[in-house]
């Protein structure tokens, strides 16, 4: 299915990669946008809900109570964790993105997948059970991964797609590209520090695309390994950091890194 506006989308300048006539990123099966300003997401069992003011709401503006353990419940928990415990950076991300939806400033979609990725145009894919392990055997929580992807969305909305695309075009063997370096230093690292100060033992990284995904136990805000033997993956990350630049570049081109 495809969707089209009869006129140009008011937010077209924020999303140069999407046609200004495209409705909900050309994916009306998953997303809906009643007035061109708000975005609803399909997160489990075909239910479309919106995150707003720390809660979830259905299409009739009724509060939606997510089933315990569902993707909706885990997403709600992670978003509230970022807003409450992510310090100034976390609060800025959540406040700006949710207020933008209400005031017609921009759109954000979150859907479940394997790994984490921001595809542009406000579309985010996220797994609430997967974190990242770095070379120090430290685990980054799924919530921090979500904050990372929200950072990309914020960058695109505030600075514009052309600026973000320009940074993406500047490749780097350690950081993948200039956008990932900027995003980690601007959003991920400060939010991780705030999580740690709030007692969540969070960790961050000084590279991108070199860490391995690992399953966590205890929910999306946890940094506890589900399988202790996954600690061995940290050695692989440490080894990659010793590789010459050309070897790293080749490894990336071969499609080895996951989406993070």
Helix content: 25-40%
Number of strands: 12
- Alpha-beta content class: alpha+beta
The poorly predicted ranges are 1-8, 10-17, 29-39
> What is the succession of H and E elements?
EEEHHEEEEEHHEEHEEHH
The oligomeric state of the chains shown is single chain
Principal-axis shape = globular
Strand order, biggest sheet?
8-7-11-12
Task: Give me the number of helical elements.
Answer: 7
* N-end to C-end Cα span: 28 Å
Largest sheet: 4 strands, antiparallel
- Estimated radius of gyration: 18 Å
Average pLDDT, all residues: 82
Structural features:
260 residues; alpha+beta; 3-stranded antiparallel beta sheet; 7 helices; globular
Provide a concise account of the structure shown.
The protein is an alpha+beta fold. The protein is 38% helix and 17% strand.
Write the layout of secondary structure elements.
Layout: E1 41-44, E2 47-52, E3 55-57, H1 71-85, H2 87-103, E4 109-112, E5 117-120, E6 123-126, E7 130-133, E8 139-140, H3 142-159, H4 161-168, E9 171-172, E10 176-177, H5 178-200, E11 212-217, E12 224-225, H6 233-240, H7 245-253
Parallel strand pairs: 4-6
Antiparallel strand pairs: 1-2, 2-3, 5-6, 7-8, 7-11, 9-10, 11-12
Question: Your description of this structure?
Answer:
With 260 residues, the chain is of the alpha+beta class. Helix content is 38%, strand content 17%. It is built from 7 helices and 12 strands. The strands form 4 sheets. It has a 4-stranded antiparallel beta sheet. A 3-stranded antiparallel beta sheet has the order 1-2-3. A hairpin with a 2-residue loop joins strand 1 and strand 2. Helix 1 packs across helix 2, helix 1 packs across helix 3 and helix 3 packs across helix 4.
